[in-house]
Write a structure and sequence with these properties.
By secondary structure, this protein is mostly beta strands. The chain is about 0% helix and about 55% strand. It has no helices and 34 strands. The chain has strands at about 10-15, 25-30, 40-45, 50, 55-60, 60-65, 70-80, 85, 90-95, 100-105, 115-120, 120-125, 130-135, 140-145, 160-165, 170-175, 180, 190, 200-205, 210-215, 220-225, 230-235, 245-250, 255-260, 265-270, 280-285, 285, 290-300, 305-310, 320-325, 330-335, 340-350, 355-360, 365-370. The two termini are about 45 Å apart. About 40% of the residues are buried.
Length: about 375
């Protein structure tokens, strides 16, 4: 056995992998060392730790490998004689594959859809062009639909975004300046925020059943309880950190922070949901262009996925795609080609595979992409 003080480093290939792609860790054996002197483990998103075994591959080298299952940050730790190698640990950012798995056009066909949410084994979709909310199976076949609720209003029903938590369902009604609360049987129970909203867009429900509503016109987030009491307002119009410009979709992460698509400031902002103070914000720039941030969701490992559109009027340079970031604003990868007017996005695990359901408003469909 060589001295553990011997400087030993390891290499990783590839350094920018995608999910389901084998990652190989290689070390060169020091003089008198053996493969048993090396060990490694991987800390994956969600802090799961996996031990790896090295095998000798010839030319005094040994390898270990793993296949990342999830998008996000992985920490690779390699030990030699029970002590960390000179360049240990190393951090990998694993990107999504972004392959198109299936396109859901609906049955009957979708018309200008805007958002999608999971509802048991079904989906809820705001089918904005038909002024309705629909419930479909996983293939897009219609199970039920809801048009103008039996609540007084002078405008067409304009369903925009959806939030579901346990038996509470809320839908923002853009033109009628309200959010509608339903029960699990789709009976409308009450209107939320009629006196306080102008153009409600994104909605989310937290673990305390507080309803957060982004207001595109007022450039703020209103927070209500289930009894329609306004609890507080987060943000105001402006360009400074903590200020908003035309917010779209919103989400709550595992730290109970509010994550906001700050559309016309071309950034994502993260707020303390209790104090309303901004925790972090980061610009969304892709290939040198500011990106208008539209749809937004957060997965179970706090990876942020946004649908974004290049801030340009020149069609040849226009990019419409899904971008993935860490909660610290570190860019992970792009997915989704051939999108037109991407809007809401929902991430879920299905048959041991992570998928992104992306609303493609321009093509009147839902595109399912692999993560």
């Amino acid at each position: 056995m060589a001295s553990p003080s011997t400087k030993v480093e390891f290499q990783i290939s590839p350094m920018s992998p995608k999910t389901k792609q084998e990652v190989v860790i290689s070390v060169s054996l020091p003089l008198n060392a053996s493969v048993e002197d090396f060990s490694a483990h991987i800390q994956s998103p969600g802090n799961t730790i996996k031990d790896l075994k090295f095998e000798e591959v010839g030319d005094k080298k040994c390898n270990a490998s793993f296949v990342p299952e999830f998008v996000g940050q992985y920490e690779v730790i390699v030990n030699y004689c029970n002590k960390p190698c000179a360049n240990s640990p190393k951090t990998l950012l694993v990107a999504p594959r972004g392959e198109l798995k299936v396109t859901i056009t609906g049955g009957p066909k979708l018309n200008n859809p805007h958002d999608i949410a999971e509802f048991g084994t079904d989906f809820i979709i705001t089918n904005k062009g038909n002024h309705e909310v629909i419930v479909t199976d996983r293939s897009g076949l219609l199970r039920n639909k809801f048009v103008m609720p039996t609540l007084s209003s002078s405008q067409n029903f304009e369903p925009y975004a959806i939030a579901v938590r346990n038996d509470v369902i809320v839908v923002s009604d853009l033109e009628n300046q309200r959010v509608i609360q339903y029960n699990k049987d789709w009976v409308p129970l009450k209107q939320i925020g009629v006196e306080f909203l102008k153009r409600p867009t994104g909605v989310v429900i937290d673990s305390d059943d507080k309803i957060y509503v982004a207001d595109h016109e007022l450039c703020c987030i209103r927070v209500f309880d289930l009894n329609d009491h306004l609890i507080k307002t987060i943000g105001r119009e402006g360009t400074k950190p903590g200020e908003l410009m035309k917010p779209w979709f919103i989400a709550i992460n595992n730290r109970r922070q509010l994550v906001v698509a700050d559309c016309q400031n071309f950034r994502v902002q993260i707020f303390n949901s209790i104090t309303g103070e901004v925790v972090h914000c980061f610009k969304v720039i892709f290939e040198g262009s500011d990106m208008a941030v539209r749809g937004l969701t957060v997965d179970k490992h706090d990876i942020i996925y946004i649908t974004a559109v290049t801030n340009t009027l020149r069609p040849r340079k226009k990019v419409e795609c899904v971008l993935a970031y860490t909660m610290d604003g570190e860019f992970i990868g792009r997915l989704g080609g051939n999108l037109s007017l991407p809007r809401g996005i929902h991430v879920m695990e299905e048959n041991y595979e992570m998928l992104a359901y992306v609303v493609d408003g321009g093509h009147h469909c839902i595109k399912v992409l692999t993560l």
